Amino acid sequence: MTTRTPWRHTALLAGLVLLTAACGGTTKSDVEQQASASATAASSAAADPNAPIKQGLKIAFLPKQVNNPYFTIANGGGIEAAKEFGGEGKEVGPSDASASSQVSYINTLTQQKQDAIVIAANDPNAVVPALKQAMAAGIKVVSYDSDTAPEGRHVFVNQASAEDLGRTQVQLLAEQVGHKGKIAILSATPNATNQNTWIEFMKDELKKPDYKDMELVKVAYGNDDDQKSFTETQGLLRSYPDLAGIISPTTVGIAAAARYLSDSPSKGKVKLTGLGTPNQLRKFVKDGTIEAFELWNPADLGYLASYAAAALASGQVTGAEGEKFKAGKLGEYTIGAKGEVLLGKPTVFNEDNIDDFDF
Amino acid sequence: MTATATTGETMRRNGGRRLVDRVARVRELGIVVALGVLFGVTGAVNPSFLSYASLRDILLNSAIVAMLAVGQTLVVVTRNVDLSVSSVVGLSAFGGALILADHPGVPVAVVIAGCVVLGALCGAVNGLLVGAAKVPALVATLGTLYAFRGIDYAWAGGRQVNAADMPEGFLSLGSRSVLGVPLLALVALAVLLAVGWTLGNLRAGRELYAIGSSPEAAVLAGIAVRRRIVAAFVANGALAGLAGVMWAARFGTVDATVATGKELDVIAAVVVGGVAIFGGSGSVYGAALGALLLTGITSALAVLRVDALAQTAINGALLIAAIVLDRVLALRVAAALRRRRYHETTDPGRPADGR
Q1: Residue of B nearest to A222 (CA)
Q2: Which residues of chain A from 27 to 56 reach within 8 Å of chain B, CB to CB?
Q3: Which end of chain A is more exposed for a tag (fewer CB within 10 A), N or C?
Q4: Which residue has better confidence, A271 or A357?
Q5: Are strands A58-62 and A116-119 parallel, antiparallel or unpaired?
Q6: How many domains does chain A have?
Q7: Half-sphere exposure in the Cβ direction for A216 (13 Å, CA)
Q8: pLDDT tier at A16 (50, 70, 90 boundaries)?
Q9: Is residue A78 part of a domain?
Q10: PROSITE patterns this protein is in (chain A) (predicted)?
């Protein structure tokens, strides 16, 4: 016993020292210093817009989770782009959408000395330290779909601006309901950042005089779960019998709502729009449950992200505002503020054009 | 004259009391009361909750969970648990949908049968792990929860089967009604009655309870414990397979993540329905009512315009309230019955036997 007690003290002391050291390592000023350091590093490397795209670039796509149809399509577009410019694209990633599992993938990719990592972050901050290590090892980082904190990547390829998405969905529904009546939103989870940003812009759009006869009565949350989205749709129809339309800015929500409406007496009377994929909603557009909905083209998103990664790795761009690069069939893009590249306006799908798309 | 009248009255009173006794002894009483309160209160606030269309929706919503809860009960009464059901549902839903989408010539009935067999095979894996290899059920089925889901992921490879890919005849199974009752609810009801009868009347059913009450005693009594446990898991797997096809028909959009996390809903339904989690007691009727109560609560919260951010917490609170109500009622009834039995046996004026 007597020999043990001092041991405990030492251990405790050592633990405390370690703890304080660990806390010291992540102070805000440190992060800021690192951020400014990387910023100066980025600006000191000169961009050569005429540099050719290097051959044999290894580009890794790290989606939020594999087995997610949306990312399968997006990364398919990215791998296709890589083939076009003579590079080599591959998709790796966790089967659960968690930041911690992404971190271990980033570390592996860093050790494999990839030329570029294209990532959809499960958490904007948790993946940053690992990405900084990758960048320190000379790997170019492009985020797509879901951004990381700006210091964790060189360029963010934004699928569509939140503002465009929010406002155009309201415009789509307003046309369908004749600019009047009660409307509701069927969202994913209450704490989904992108959903909430879109919803804020929807509310803002609804304040315009054009929509003075439209009233947003409820924001329901289907948690991106089929059953819950079904139940919430039923709840909306029961508690607001005179509901004119529903906006569902989530692919799971809109599919569940469409499936429910297509069998209910409200089919065609309660309008439904939102974000969905053409394959998922083809049947419901054809049977009259949905008039029109919208989405960006995920294959184009992956395609553009792939070209952005190649442009970075070849030295055509450094991620600074105003730099331009060519993205194959999509044409030329300019990097905006905070290293953002915008894919473009969302595509509207309706009965006339839905058969032109297969994703 | 007076004597006969009194006797007649006593008999009537006894008959009445016997009926009350019998009702009070029904284990599922608490859950029925909770259901009554839920529908009564919600219906009073918003009468459309009790409309035919709404009730039909609730029946449809609960059909799949109810069927899974019935299967789970088979396993839970043997003092085991099957956490892998949601993965089996996912595997079966995706498999069925994929066959229907890629091979439209295959008859729907064959696909359904195939899914049930697939589910039964998954159940057999669980059963052999638990029954033959003696791995604790919690661990074994936690492992297969991931294993089956992993197979599903590998098989799907990110693919999604959409409503437009599946034949209309199949999708309509998920929404069609027979005599005003949704087909899926009728399937769930048929399964419920069949399993309920088996558990109550057949030797195979009674032995499951015996195993759950005391595994050692069951072995000493000569019950083929291993075989019965494997059979319970296989039956549960088959029901999960059937539930998977129902899922595909109902929701129309199927990918590898179907039903993720639903195992907890199923186990909650079973526990709410009064099935003892340590085995040996409880009925499938209770489990099915539990599923109905859980879906009823979710539907009611959606109809009552409850704030979305508070819904999950309220859902949990109502769940606890339902279980507490059930426990309190059960204890009170048990105490009352004990008291009466005591009075009856000590009162010399009455025959000891209540009959």
Answers
A1: B308
A2: none
A3: N
A4: A271
A5: parallel
A6: 2
A7: 18
A8: very low
A9: yes
A10: PROKAR_LIPOPROTEIN (PS51257)
